[in-house]
Design a protein that fits this description.
The chain is built from five helices and three strands, in the order H-H-E-H-H-E-E-H. The protein is an alpha+beta fold and 108 residues long.
Length: 108
């Protein structure tokens, strides 16, 4: 899979997954791999910069969870602003994929 194509979709995918339920980083990576039958396979190192940017921009918020004296995991939740951004991104994605399909359909 072309990594350049994937880079532009990271925030859309992350917001989409987190709109379902809160998840921690490795869970996001595993879900993406499983639900795309391995077509999209992210490394945690490429996910965390996107999570940090979305958190800084107020689209998601992180919350450490876990029992005392156990491993803590940072669960990410989509915010109200993130839900609004997801709606806009989904609309843009729909327009983009329709336009590309139209162009590709005319190619020989």
């Amino acid at each position: 899979m072309d990594n350049e194509l994937i880079k532009g979709t990271l925030s859309l995918i992350i917001l989409s997954l987190l709109s379902r339920r809160a998840m921690y980083g490795y869970e996001i990576v595993a879900t993406v791999k499983e639900e795309t039958d391995g077509v999209l396979e992210w490394k945690a190192g490429s996910l965390y910069p996107s999570l940090h940017k979305l958190e800084k921009d107020g689209m998601i918020r992180g919350e450490w969870q876990g029992e005392p004296d156990t491993r803590q995991r940072k669960y990410y939740h989509v915010t109200k602003a993130g839900r609004a951004a997801l709606g806009e991104k989904k609309e843009s994605w729909s327009q983009l994929t329709t336009a590309i399909a139209q162009l590709m359909g005319k190619s020989k």
